[in-house]
Amino acid sequence: xxxxxxxxxxxxxxxxxxxxxxxxxxxxxxxxxxxxxxxxxxxxxxxxxxxxxxxxxxxxxxxxxxxxxxxxxxxxxxxxxxxxxxxxxxxxxxxxxxxxxxxxxxxxxxxxxxxxx
Length: 117
Known about the structure:
By secondary structure, the protein is an alpha+beta fold. The protein has 3 helices and 4 strands.
């Protein structure tokens, strides 16, 4: 068995904790790249994406995709889409990313937008 990277170990640990505590709530999954940030609400029971938003979207109007401002705009846009889909309680999946910077900005903006986690 190959040795896992720290990122992969963290991602697996976070995912197993989320599965234990989800209680049927959708998962707010975050992916952060060097240039952009992506977020989606996933219904794991049905295997479907409920809503998605990223810094590439037209409704997220920003000059740069790799800033905390962009992440906050993505969080607010996703919260609005979730409200429209009838979702208000989610479980936050940060993947293997540390909870600071852009990931934290997205989470805080989603909370301000009305999502509970």
